[in-house]
Amino acid sequence: MHLAGMASNNGRNLRNIAEREPGGATFAVVVSNAPDAPILDAMSDRGVPTEVVPREDGESRRSHEERVLDVLAEYGFDLVCMDGYMRILTGTFLDAAPTTINVHPSLLPVFPGMDAHEQVLESGVKTTGCTVHVATEAVDAGPIVTQEPVPVYDGDTEQDLKQRVLYEAEFV
User: Fold this and answer.
1) What is the pTM of this model?
2) Residue 117 known to be catalytic
3) How far is the C-alpha of 136 from the C-alpha of 148, rounded, in Å?
4) Catalytic residue of the set 2, 64, 104, 133
């Protein structure tokens, strides 16, 4: 299976997939909307083609997504994997691309959005984890593909939880 990765920053999950190649999956390309995203150098060093498609000032989401799709059209892939791609995709992208999945650092449907670990700690729950879900136009609301639970311990900080979710759930 050939993957297209999309990340705006470190793309740790994409790196993990590239290293492990689960089920023989390989990356055809990794795209970022951030020219200085560390994922670009990391994947380029692995021999994976990378592309940057920044959103221009005043550019509509639709126009930007069309440009991303134009870049992706140069590559053959079966699945899009988002990892910290800090854009909410619209039907323009989702209807034209193969299935697009996202990794979220909590057990959805609770605690969506960017501050999941903070929400988890404030809620007092004893279990969190990560969710892989199909991307939709709604934030972290698509069908769940899989989830991996992680315990929340008394005294955990956001950083503690972030590291535990990353290494005990996301990288499993």
Assistant:
1) 0.92
2) no
3) 21
4) 104
